[in-house]
Amino acid sequence: MLKMKVSCHLITWEEDFVKGMEEASSLGYRACETFTRIALKCEDRSDEFKALFEKYGLVLSALYGGGRFSDASQFHETVAYNARVARFAAQNGSDRIVLGPRGPRTAGGTTLEELKTAARVINESAKRCFDLGVKACLHPHLNTEIQDENELDAIMEMTDPNFVFFCPDTAHLTKAGMDPVTVMRRYKDRIAYMHIKDVTPEEPDRTKFPILSGDEALPIFCELGLGSIDFPAVVRLLEEIQYDGWMTIEIDQSTSTPRNSLMVCRDYVEQKLSIPISNRM
Which residue intervals define the domain Xylose isomerase-like TIM barrel in the entry (predicted)? Predict the structure, then answer.
């Protein structure tokens, strides 16, 4: 059985992160990631932030940083922002920050010069985070400057593996045309955090989505086990590399309620992947 720890993102609750904490806790989750803009509202009231986590029996798995890495004019601003996020994360018991790139994408893809600039900014941001006891983990993301495989490979090659780690997101990698297992194997020594979510099939069978609340269009990402990603293969790779870090379940958009979606994911992870989330197992 994997030693990894399972977390959940409260993105589905949007601004109502307290309700998200309450419902995630009621489902047995013991850790969460939340919007950084919400967390930083408590930057000068850290005790209140900590008290919320204690109330619901949760720990903070990570916060999401990042920036427009390819814009040299934002170098100092981006580095300072990520150090700020890392400092707050560390004060609240987390040692991970996700480095998320931003859009828009350059027509035809991010250029080599833009990638070189991005690598410098990412390197410096990660070093500042590391000095604070926090590992910075690069998260390739659709519709941003680091989306495609060649862009990911270039950044990983041009950054220091002692400071810049990897946060694979199974859905974003898949939708960008990559095989998550192949990419994760390539950067196995740098994986320090991860997001898992599923991808809705191109021609979905709506009868396989038991939590649909109506005839609404299906989102691009869906609850674990309802989409096309081979999660057993992902787990086998994690077992092979003896990954023992956080695996954060993320549902961008629910087709019923945030709680129902997180329950579907919990049941899939526990029953199909044999990874415990709650103390019910």
Answer: 22-255
- 5-271: CATH, from 3.40.50.720, 1.20.58.1610, 2.60.40.10, 3.20.20.150: 3.20.20.150
Mean pLDDT of 102-131: 97
Other CB atoms within a 10 A radius of the CB of residue 278 amount to 14
Structure tokens at 154: 């270039």
Q: Report how far residue 70's alpha carbon sits from residue 149's, in angstroms, rounded to the nearest whole number.
A: 17
Which residues are bridge partners to 196 per DSSP? 249
pLDDT tens digits, one per residue of 184-215? 999 999 999 999 999 998 887 777 776 776 66
Q: Give residue-wise pLDDT tens across range 21-33.
A: 999 999 999 999 9
Q: What is the pLDDT of residue 209?
A: 75
How many other CB atoms are found less than 10 A from the CB of residue 275? 20
